[in-house]
Amino acid sequence: MNWPFGRSNKPTADLKTARLRLIAITPAMMAAEQQADGSLTKLLHARLTPEWPPEHWEPHVFDFILKQFADEPTTAGWHRYVVLPDSYGCSTTLIGCVGGFPKPDGDVEIGYSTIPQFQRQGYGTEAATTLVNWLLSRKGVRSVSAQTFPHLPESIKIMERCGMSPAGDGDEAGTVRYRRMR
Predict the structure, then answer these.
(1) pLDDT tens figures, 127-155
(2) Where are the beta strands (DSSP E) in 103-152?
(3) Please, which contacts does 67-73 make with residues 24 or more away whose CB atoms are closer than 8 Å?
């Protein structure tokens, strides 16, 4: 499928917030994460806690992202590692990930996750909102959506804080979809 997203040969810049840095995931970073030799920490200049990876960062996610890189290189930057700089900016800790993938009709579906010790501190909302705003500025992106189960109020709060509104049922039985239009 050929997606209508603009092409660019420029490297994708990090996205920054008041507290976070969102680093564009590359195939090299994905390969480094599969190694147990500390390669990812060197590439990201960040430390990993024993809680890494996040709960839903499963092996099929690696395959999915690598396939997206191969099938649609214009989506570079749509998947991000989220790092939290210390108060002096001297070191960082990898606390989560956020990413999106193209859906039909110019929609991009996102997902987000933070490791447990960094949950309920606004980092997930901050990272997701930053990605949503960045995605909506991309050529061809008409909307950003996300799905969750109704019994996960923290996830729904993140979607609402990103400016998303209920948009019906999700793809999986029992899920709900939220969407924000451009």
Answers:
(1) 999 999 999 999 999 999 999 999 999 99
(2) 107-114, 143-148
(3) 68/101, 69/27, 71/1, 72/3, 72/5, 72/102, 73/7
